[in-house]
């Protein structure tokens, strides 16, 4: 019942945002000399399911079974010829057998929850200087976690349009509700704070290398401070049977670097290659390589198989169930911080006719909304510690022409 109401609510909001965008464009049409580009609306949804046997909630052993349904709406509205409004609103409805073991009461309140998030951005383009400036504010909430964010961005395009430099910064202010394992409640505070701050800086340089090849290189610098452990993650030690909560340093520095190449093979085939190196101050080192090869089947239909391989070295503070020592200052049995290799294999299909798929009207406006494209995607993920998952996602793209 709750999931059904969530879906109905998301569809109602999508309809409202589409109608509002159309009404706003129609209302401004008499004031414009230059016609605005159309508004874009994307309605996305995904279903994710995983299973494994290394839950950090129960000390690195036990079920990791989880399902997650995620509807999302992204609306991009031109306010005038140089200013765009972007709204990204979504929900995650999940059920988790793992978090249900916080109090060992199967089907307890912690077995499912809904996370809601929204980001609102405003961007403005200076055509003379070939720059774009943007600002974004956002927030998210769920039963044990609230977050607020602020972001700024700037990009500069070269005179010939073949090169672009983009830089951005974001700051997140997060607050946790401190939920401990049931056997450790009533012992006072087991962590030093319920706050976390994250400061992200990113830079991307994109370049048209030739008629067939485009590339980009990106670098990020992320600094986090505050509560970086999860209060309901258990850790068991060699020397005793009793449990303690996960303890991790109160600061972390991350510095990933990524390289992306798109190669136009022919009118029917394109290759998209991606590589990312990750390292942080906790000793975690990762390497990720991904390839996606879209094939055109006719002028409007394409399929794109993809494959990703990832390998990582464990963080300094990870050890498996009952392999930690009481002499250690920091400790975790979260297998996301362990040594492992992972693979993801999947297939996507896209249908995008030149004149759209269908048109329909909206109330309170004479604009006609066009269903522009449909994307369907499925992927299977598995990693060397036994965790497996499946994800299915859809993307329905709409446009609302200006008048």
Account of the 3D structure:
By secondary structure, the chain is mainly beta. It has one helix spanning 2-28, and strands at residues 39-51, 66-78, 83-96, 112-126, 131-142, 145-157, 163-176, 195-208, 213-226, 234-236, 243-245, 251-254, 257-264, 270-279, 285-292, 295-297, 301-313, 340-351, 358-361, 368-383, 388-400. A 16-stranded antiparallel barrel has the order 1-2-3-4-5-6-7-8-9-13-14-15-17-18-20-21. The two termini are 41 Å apart. The mean pLDDT is 89.
What are the defining features of this structure?
about 400 residues, mainly beta, 16-stranded antiparallel beta barrel, 1 helix, about 55% strand
Strand and helix map with partners:
Blueprint: H1 2-28, E1 39-51, E2 66-78, E3 83-96, E4 112-126, E5 131-142, E6 145-157, E7 163-176, E8 195-208, E9 213-226, E10 234-236, E11 243-245, E12 251-254, E13 257-264, E14 270-279, E15 285-292, E16 295-297, E17 301-313, E18 340-351, E19 358-361, E20 368-383, E21 388-400
Antiparallel strand pairs: 1-2, 1-21, 2-3, 3-4, 4-5, 5-6, 6-7, 7-8, 8-9, 9-12, 9-13, 10-11, 13-14, 14-15, 15-17, 16-17, 17-18, 18-20, 19-20, 20-21
């Amino acid at each position: 019942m709750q999931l059904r109401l969530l879906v109905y609510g998301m569809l109602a909001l999508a309809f409202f945002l589409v109608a509002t965008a159309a009404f706003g464009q129609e209302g401004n049409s008499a004031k414009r000399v230059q016609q605005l580009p159309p508004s874009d609306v994307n309605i996305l949804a995904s279903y994710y399911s995983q299973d494994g046997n290394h839950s950090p909630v129960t000390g690195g052993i036990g079920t990791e079974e989880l399902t997650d349904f995620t509807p999302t709406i992204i609306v991009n509205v031109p306010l005038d010829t140089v200013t765009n409004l972007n709204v990204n609103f979504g929900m995650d409805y999940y059920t988790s057998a793992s978090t249900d073991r916080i109090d060992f009461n199967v089907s307890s309140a912690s077995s499912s929850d809904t996370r809601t998030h929204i980001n609102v951005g405003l961007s403005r383009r200076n055509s003379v200087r070939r720059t774009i400036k943007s600002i974004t504010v956002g927030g998210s909430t769920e039963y044990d976690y609230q977050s607020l964010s602020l972001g700024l961005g700037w990009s500069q395009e070269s005179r010939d349009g073949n090169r672009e430099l983009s830089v951005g910064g974001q700051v997140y202010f997060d607050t946790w509700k401190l939920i401990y394992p049931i056997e450790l409640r009533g012992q006072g505070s087991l962590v030093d704070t319920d706050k976390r701050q994250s400061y992200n800086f990113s830079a991307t340089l994109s370049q048209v290398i030739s008629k067939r090849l485009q590339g980009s290189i990106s670098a990020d610098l992320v600094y986090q401070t505050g509560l970086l452990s999860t209060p309901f993650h258990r850790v068991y030690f060699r020397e005793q049977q009793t449990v303690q909560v996960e303890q991790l340093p109160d600061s972390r520095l991350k510095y990933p670097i990524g390289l992306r190449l798109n190669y136009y093979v022919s009118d029917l085939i394109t290759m998209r290659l991606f590589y990312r190196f990750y390292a942080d101050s906790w000793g975690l080192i990762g390497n990720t390589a991904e390839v996606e090869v879209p094939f055109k089947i006719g002028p409007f239909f394409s399929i794109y198989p993809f494959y990703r391989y990832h390998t990582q070295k464990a963080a300094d503070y990870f050890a498996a169930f009952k392999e930690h020592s009481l002499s250690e200052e920091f400790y975790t049995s979260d297998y996301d911080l362990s040594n492992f290799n992972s693979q993801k294999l999947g297939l996507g299909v896209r249908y995008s006719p030149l004149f759209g798929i269908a048109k329909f009207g909206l109330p309170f406006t004479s604009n006609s909304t066009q269903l522009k494209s449909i994307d369907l995607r499925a992927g299977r993920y598995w990693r060397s510690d036994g965790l497996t998952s499946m994800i299915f996602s859809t993307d329905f793209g709409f446009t609302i022409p200006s008048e």
